[in-house]
Amino acid sequence: MTTIRTRFAPSPTGLLHIGNARAALFNFLFARHHGGEFLLRIEDTDRERSTQQAVDVIFDGLAWMGIEPDEEPVFQSSREDRHREVALELLEKGLAYKCYCTPEELHQMREDAKAKGLPPRYNGMWRDRDPSEAPAGAPFAVRIKAPREGEATINDLVQGEVRVANAELDDMIILRSDGTPTYQHAVVVDDHDMAITHVIRGDDHLTNTFRQAMIYRAMGWELPRFGHLPLIHGPDGAKLSKRHGAQSVVEFREMGYLPEALCNYLLRLGWGHGDAEILSREEQIKLFDIDGVGRSPSRMDYAKLLHINAVWLRQADDERLTNDVMERFKKMDGVSVDETTRARVAALMPGLKERARTLVELAESAAFLGRQVPLTFNDKAQKLLTPEARTMLGELARDLAAMPDFTPEAIDTTLRNFAEKHELKLGKVAQPVRAAVTGSNTSPGIDATLQALGKDETLARLGAVLHG
After folding, report:
1. What tens digit of pLDDT does each residue of 155-204 get?
2. 242 is catalytic
3. One of 242, 331, 353, 428 is an active-site residue; which one?
4. Which H or E run contains 199?
């Protein structure tokens, strides 16, 4: 049996858009599910718009998502000689021809077609003319001879059978007058030479598929199977744009989303398998197949993504999260990134990650662990630190200072005994303590919070409130 080979072929002209990222994921999972191979091709023939920075963004984004190609990436620009070779072969076989139209003539063709209410397209002016009529030394483009009768059919893996009348397809350029290949031509040659068996991409490429199929058929090459994915829309059903929120993989990473959460969400965006919502990469590979992809556009649901991220955050390794939080501390004012802070973050991470939905929230909630006294208090914390509460904290500090062991269990016992002794509910004691040592009214359990800070730091923070 033929080994299934899929590819992701982005143009390095901007950010790695979330729609492209999903296409990469689907190609990767499809290949893995069938024991095949996943390849990466950078379509960098647009020299003016392609940048190394954009190439780096693609590599970085895919690596972050855990989508690694099975072979070295192919750069389309390095294959121009091969693209030109195939175009000239078609020309030699009489399946393509030289077109000497000037830009002015092409513009007039489009205008004439518009005036007649027809689609603006090339009218085949040089298709059947005698080569002797060619102007001497004039530049020419190479156009493929499109079939003029009948219809073309694509049995799409997602969209089903799609038909287009051949009369709607014009003789497209495969080699420009400067000798460079067009995108439509280069894609076909590359997919054939890379032995791509399945082309899975956005349905905005469906028209391109019929154009590209002409080259496959003219060369006598077997067509790959095509699967065109419905596009991702915003929550309102309109085309996804900046006004809807983040659109690129980099943006989601900066906002504190985990790669496994984003991949999990993108998988379920347009593909379904029962009610299972949280799927590991192993489960994704086992379950994913192209027949589970729907035909309708998907709507980006940022709230759903946030929920899935929170689930993955709670499951994430504590050391990994600690490392990420420490990196984010470097960009925050007034937060120490020394080993003492790291130890505190690591100790409190089991409680911190239960309350956060993103890595940004996680870092913000943990920042108090790296701040120096005197702390800055939010409004709710300030309201908790009444004169009566401060007096109470002074008494409690003496009890805490007398503790031989500063474990969560011992801290909890001390706080409960203190509350009982003063005929207070535990919350009336714990909340002012929390405010005094964190600057906030929220944190993980107060016993774990104090233990993470340590006895000396806890007493220093309580003392700063008493003498502030």
Report:
1. 999 999 999 999 888 999 999 999 999 999 999 999 999 999 999 999 99
2. yes
3. 242
4. strand 198-202
